[in-house]
Batch of 2 targets.
Target 1
Amino acid sequence: MTIKIALTKGRVEQQVVPLLEASGIDCSGVRNKGRRLIFNEDPNFQIILVKGPDVLTYLNNSSVHIGIVGSDILAEQNNPQYAMLDMGVGKCRFVLASTRDFNPQQVRRKIIATKYPNITKRYFQSIGEDVEIIKIEGSVELAPLIGLADAIVDITETGTTLKENDLHVYAELQPVSTKLVVNRLAVKQYRPEIKTFINKLQEAQKNLGV
Ligand code: PRP
């Protein structure tokens, strides 16, 4: 049986590939991919590279058995699949951030820009505040700088993007890390194979000190 994995391309991919390799999977194709998107170098695994939200689309439609994706995407999409392992990488956090002159107590209804409208809505509901949310696809940090929004809700890892754009953190929301998620049918059909793979990943985590 070939285990099919949808891996989030970009930062998650870079941090997960060493773990996959340490658990015995041939990732030479992923490392030298050019513009390829599908990798069959390892006879027991097929890896596809997709954007985070698409990992869940492939997983929910049973096109892959396993998805490797940030918990930010899982939380935003309210995903019904099984998160079976915290990969111990891709660690970052959600923050509310804005310019230095932002007043969190402002009387006017706040406008918040974000790639994560559901997480943002839940956060402001939890503190009893009604805000207007504007969905942005990327470079969210621009929004308060050019007057589109009063503040942003976004993930930050190193803090460099906030710092270089002179943005300040006003609240810490939830932490984020990369999760391994398994399709519900696959959990039932291929339990031994998936269990073995997860055990090897856990070994790799220990060996790499992740
Ligand atoms: C994410 C996030 C921030 C940045 C934070 O964006 O939305 O912009 O990373 O990282 P840092 O704290 O290490 O600077 P991403 O790079 O995924 O791209 P995007 O701007 O297209 O959303």
Target 2
Amino acid sequence: MPAAFLDRLASLIGAQHIVTDAQDMEPYLVERRGLYHGKALAIARPANTAEVAAVVALCHETDTAVVPQGGNTGLVGGQIPDTSGRQLILSLARLREVREVDLASNTMVVEAGMTLAEVQQAAEKAGRLFPLSLASEGSCTIGGNLATNAGGTAVIAYGNTRELVLGVEAVLSDGRVLSSLSKLKKDNTGYDLKDLFVGSEGTLGVITAAVLKLFPRPQSIETAFVGLADPHHALKLLQLAHEEAGNAIHTFELIPRIGIEYVLRHVASARDPLTEPHKWYVLLELTAQRRDGVADTMNAVLEAALEQGIIEDAALAASLDQAKQFWALREDMSEVQRLEGGSIKHDVSVPIASVPDFIDEASAAVLKAVPGGRLVPFGHLGDGNIHFNLSQPVGADKQAFVARWYEINAIVHGVVARYHGSISAEHGIGQLKRDLLPAVKDPTALDVMRAIKKALDPKGIMNPGKVL
Ligand code: FAD
């Protein structure tokens, strides 16, 4: 069957666009954290929507499972096939066109395989902003961003990916193309099908293109690195910033001192942002459309925060270069944890007001279970989304530590549940959290999800074993 299948696949997309060599397949088979290592029948790299549709139709006919893959930066194993060697990875990497930019409607139609950085650049070239921003933006694709409903560092100002999408083109499990590339802001003609595909992690169909919303580019940006005592003070700063700066807040990211120390240890160009070390930091960015700037607003926030004893110190970026250095401290956080040995991760959210109490409670519970563990809770405080990560104790055995992944998850997720939070704020479910879902999701909601899956993918060929 594989030889016959591969021959037919070659007739659809060209043999040169099918990867079967073991060494060449390897980068598609491994998740970057090394948590998952799959096998595949082959990697298919179609060039356009028609070819994607033809490949999926062939898979439908032959009962072949399809694993859509964009930039392979997903953090829950959704893009990695199982170990049977019978699943086909469908890479969207060759679908890279900007199909249209409509400045009057403030929309852009892009194909799924463009990296997020390329989409941002295309928007910039058109004099607009596409505000989705992630540390993985150089490699992740816009199709993957939609499929995972990615969050990132500008959610506080612009919302998740879902809020940045007006329309979607997707190939269904039988090879039909659902063309819902609507630019309409208002369209109440029944169920919103695009929203089914956003966040579906490749389990309902293959996203091939999307209509994205564009925004005016900010005329002024002020970036500050703030030192403070703890997350409780960070929450007070957030409230103060809301009162003083309103919707000028573009980013509000929480970082513990240990995270800065990791970056200083592993990134030669990194500099301590403030003269003295502080236990916690906030990266605060304000933006405005006005040319007269937000410097006064930023100064008012920081002065009031100093006066009220909310913050201990702050540095304002004096140049674009310095702002980039501040941002690099935040963006290097994921990579440097890997260099510190084993790391057990959580991508959770709780109501914003509960974040400090959640961090206190989860920290105490985790350290009781892992004395000497190094806590690295960081992330999007402004959205209530914390990456509650735990680095192995210094000198501990990495394998033995990582083997405790689900035990530590249970402790942290128990605290999340008490605060009515979510066990997956922005990374999705994939395979990593699939078995955790039934315990936290309303049973009726799960039934509805299964019914939708069955209706759209009756043969169960779309990314099986993920999410449900
Ligand atoms: P992949 O990893 O290839 O796939 C992810 C999932 O989407 C899989 O289930 C796959 O099957 C499916 N999929 C991919 N493309 C398609 C398609 N065209 N049609 C249908 N299904 C598809 N995520 C955040 O939300 N916020 C962050 O701040 C963030 N920061 C990160 C920082 C780093 C350093 C890294 C490595 C990752 C980070 N991520 C973050 C996670 C990841 O980058 C996002 O989930 C991203 O959206 C995945 O895009 P991708 O193209 O790499 O998708």
